[in-house]
Write a structure and sequence with these properties.
about 350 residues, mainly alpha, Rossmann fold, Tyrosyl-Transfer RNA Synthetase, 2 domains, 13 helices, about 50% helix, globular, binds tryptophanyl-5'AMP
Length: about 350
């Protein structure tokens, strides 16, 4: 990858992130993304939050379900506490500028850069030649999502770090190739939240993920209280008691994961959690975690269900968001077209 020069961008701060419209959200999405977005809403910069439906179709999505999946993510944004008056919430496909800038970035990004993307390797698995071309250029569209708003900060879970580094490389190469220093910002990845990588409840070495075949591995945002409690009770752990310090948890991946989840849900540090539970085993810790998880998630899931039943309200938010987003993104793409030298 290219060395990124010192940023010389002088535009306003903007926060941006997206979640794919590909079904079932889980606790990893909630702690790594949604909960953080609500905290950043008061950070003094406008937030652009979208439902990544263009990204979703890089793998097959049933056409009759896609719009409902988009509404479900929008409902999750709202239910987590995002205020559509302060944050711009919209479907990616409703703002044409994303796709237009993505094509131009396809001609800026280098094959060698994309060849290094680990998420493509994971998602395409053994069948690389049968994957969609979209899955391969996925991170280029992601760079367009971010830079079409000249976003300066991008909060995500840790798994998006490599894509955010690629975004900076694309921004730097565009600015450099077209002699437009400081045109695009080099966005700051905000991947250091309290739970940037929530792990599977069945395997402390695997990320909590919607593609895990075991439903026991994750807490879904649609799970009811009994299901959440049962999943926490059955979560894989070890027979040892909890220690006093984080360092002493070395080598105990499952224990670390549950302590991290407890800390993130209760807005405490991991050391505070250990101070409370030191000397106790998982027989005592798990019921408390189950209680906390149910109490934290129940209002969110209930509000999601209420909103999903009020389609008109969600559609109003998404339409209004798309309009406000286009008003920012369209002029940026127009300017880019001028910089590239297109007839206008
Ligand atoms: P997606 O839909 O896979 O995930 C949405 C968000 O949830 C975070 N996340 C996690 N965080 C902690 N622990 C986990 N186990 C976990 N699993 C998922 C993700 O890091 C993400 O923040 N490519 C993105 C969507 C996207 C995007 C963008 C994000 C498209 N364009 C532009 C930021 C900026 C994705 O697939 O997220």
């Amino acid at each position: 990858m290219t060395d990124t020069p010192a940023p010389s961008y002088s535009g306003p701060r903007r926060i941006l992130s997206g979640i794919q419209a590909s079904g079932a959200l889980h606790l990893g999405n909630y702690l790594g993304a949604l909960k953080r977005f609500t905290q950043l809403q008061d950070a003094g910069a406008p937030c652009f939050l979208f439902v990544a439906d263009l990204h979703a179709i890089t793998v097959w999505q049933e056409p009759e379900k896609l719009a409902a999946q988009t509404r479900e993510i929008a409902a999750a944004y709202l239910a987590s506490g995002l205020d559509p008056a302060r944050s711009v919430i919209f479907p990616q496909s409703a703002v044409r500028a994303h796709s237009e800038l993505a094509w131009i970035f396809n001609c800026v990004a280098r094959l060698g850069w994309l060849d290094r993307m680990t998420q493509f390797k994971e998602k395409s698995g053994k069948h690389k030649e049968r994957s969609s071309v979209g899955l391969y250029t996925y991170p280029v569209l992601q760079a367009a999502d971010i830079l079409v708003y000249k976003a300066t900060e991008v909060p995500t879970g840790e798994d998006q770090k490599q894509h955010l580094e690629l975004t900076r490389d694309i921004a730097a190469k565009f600015n450099n190739d077209f002699g437009a220093p400081g045109f695009f910002p080099l966005p700051e990845p905000l991947t250091q939240g309290p739970a940037p990588r929530v792990m599977s409840l069945r395997d402390g070495a695997a990320k909590m993920s919607k593609s895990d075949p075991s439903d026991q591995s994750r807490i879904n945002l649609t799970d009811d209280a009994d299901t959440i409690a049962a999943k926490v009770r059955k979560a894989r752990t070890d027979p040892d008691a909890l220690p006093e310090t984080w360092d002493e948890l070395e080598g105990r991946a499952e224990a670390k994961n549950l302590v991290t989840i407890y800390a993130a849900l209760s807005d405490q540090s991991r050391d505070q959690v250990l101070a409370e539970f030191a000397g106790q085993g998982f027989g005592a810790f798990k019921p408390r975690l189950a209680e906390l998880a149910v109490a934290s998630m129940a209002p969110v899931t209930a509000e999601m269900r209420r909103l999903m039943a009020d389609r008109a309200e969600i559609d109003r938010v998404l339409r209004d968001g798309a309009e406000r987003a286009s008003a920012v993104a369209d002029p940026v793409v127009d300017e880019v077209k001028g910089i590239v030298g297109f007839w206008r």
